[in-house]
Design goal:
- The structure holds two protein chains of two kinds.
- Helices cover about 25% and strands about 25% of the residues of chain A.
- Chain A has four helices and nine strands.
- In chain A, the strands form three sheets. Chain A has a three-stranded antiparallel β-sheet, with no helix packed on it.
- The radius of gyration of chain A is 28 Å and the shape is elongated.
- The termini of chain A are far apart.
- Chain B has a two-stranded antiparallel ribbon with strand order 1-2.
- Chain B contains 16 helices and two strands.
- Helices cover about 60% and strands about 0% of the residues of chain B.
- Chain B is mostly helical.
- Classes of the chains: A alpha+beta, B mainly alpha.
- Chains A and B meet through helix 1, helix 2 and helix 3 of A and helix 5 of B.
Amino acid sequence: MADSMASQATGGGAAPGVTKRDFLQLTTTAFAAVGVGAIVWPFIGSLAPAKDVLALASTEVDIGPIAVGQSITVMWRGKPVFVRHRTPEEISLARATPMSELKDPATDQSRVRRDPWLVVVGVCTHLGCVPLGQRSTDTKGDYNGWFCPCHGSHYDTSARIRKGPAPTNLPVPDYTFTSDRALRIG
Amino acid sequence: MGMGLHDSQVSNPVLRWIDQRLPVITMIQKEYGVFPTPRNFNYFWNFGALAMINLMIMIATGIFLAMNYTPHTAYAFDSVERIMRDVHFGWLIRYVHMNGASMFFIVVYIHIWRGLYYGSYKAPRELLWILGVVIFLLMMATAFMGYVLPWGQMSFWGATVITNLFSAIPVVGPTIVTYLWGGFSVDNPTLNRFFSLHYLLPFVIVGVVFLHVAALHITGSNNPLGIEPTGPQDTLPFHPYYTIKDSVGIVVYLAVFAALVFFAPNYLGHADNYIPANPLVTPAHIVPEWYFLPFYAILRAVPDKLGGVLLMGGAIAVLFVLPWLDTSKVRSLRFRPITRVIFMLWTINFFVLTWVGAKPAEQPYVLISQICTMFYFAYFLVILPAMGRFEVAMKLPESISRAVLGAKAGLGGGPMPGAAAAKPMEKA
């Protein structure tokens, strides 16, 4: 009886010693794993940003009142975004920088949509502090851009990392100009 | 083996290192592996395990709901709707939690019914039974407070009615109610503290469940015949026999649960709770959730306010002393023909109490609830004490194995451990 039952063991079990019990144990374990996955999936899924968070309206920014050389900070998706009305000196300084001096090489033109505006997310790429440089009284660091006081990262006038522990440039968010005096982030 | 280490038999070296210092693996193997369990369990014995699974489901869904719920009167209702609409799978987690509460009471009522029918509350399991009644009380408190949290009309008015009951207590009643409310009516302080306690009590339940199972493992389980196992021929190791049987039960339980959640998620609820709470408008019929209805019926059966409260409390309190009210030496109602019929009538009576608890407090429902309340108490306070003395029980079987296996029980049974062990299916 044991022989005939062993020969009935399915699942490719022509190998000797593979029994029906082995098959049952394997399939039960497989289905249990699927079951656990099916149960865990909705719980983990519920941790993702909810639809009302995702449906956040983009941030509209009126850039008309921003004077040359002035920088403003707006909130976008819970984070600060720096909008700087750059001076011609700041722009030419950024354009003149050789790529070899940059830890995260990127041309100024690739980071700007329309001169003289620079729009970057104001979160240091090291460990997340908000760099100084928005106010006229703030220090702007050695490269005249921004300076992060937490661990000493220096950003230039194109918000690229020049000195300090931050690994990458301040990120440029997705934005469009809705008119000469306004832009929309996100 | 050094001093102070447990003598572990676990083969895997990493697991043995752990087991030597904290013998959890040995404990699991003993309590849920080889634990000798009567071999004649029927499916009524699944419901304890189902209750434990249900508790875990409620805690898991509850914790994730609490990540998105706001316990403030201005935000609570909307935060629940946000869970239903905006949080990914929020509708599922909410409906599982909501219907899980109903499933919990279905499972626990059947579990209690099993205890009543088979005499599981009788010596030596009195404390096991009492711990179970404590769990039942904690469940009711938890469910009551949980229902307040969505801050719908029924949430608010149910909370108002039930907290007002405590004002019936002489002298200190109104002060107690004020302290319960944290104010002069059910309001934000009430909601906030109910949220805190609703989060806390399930973990208290976990603790008492641990004691409940520990007590069970001292006395061993009862069984449908109500006679104690006499040896290994009367028992089976819990694993694999009852792990597999419980798995079958779990599948049926999940099927019922899923049918509710996916096809009728609001069937057991009250539509009025989808209306935000309004302290100025009382709903036409304030009804608690279905699992409270029998006790609500008992409360309203008594025309006196304090009397109603005392009798409603008494309906649970009588369960605490049941082991001493039932004087019969025979455990299982299977062998007590008269009591068994009366108990079936008591069961029907419990359903009638449930039904009448949802009816308005008018005739003829008031009279029905009074008759049913009297029968509810008469069973415990009059019939059971009397039956022990006057009923002639049927002859009990000699042993479990004899009753299950018939005459063959004597052969191959006896004290050989092999008779109780699972035989290998096939090995050539």
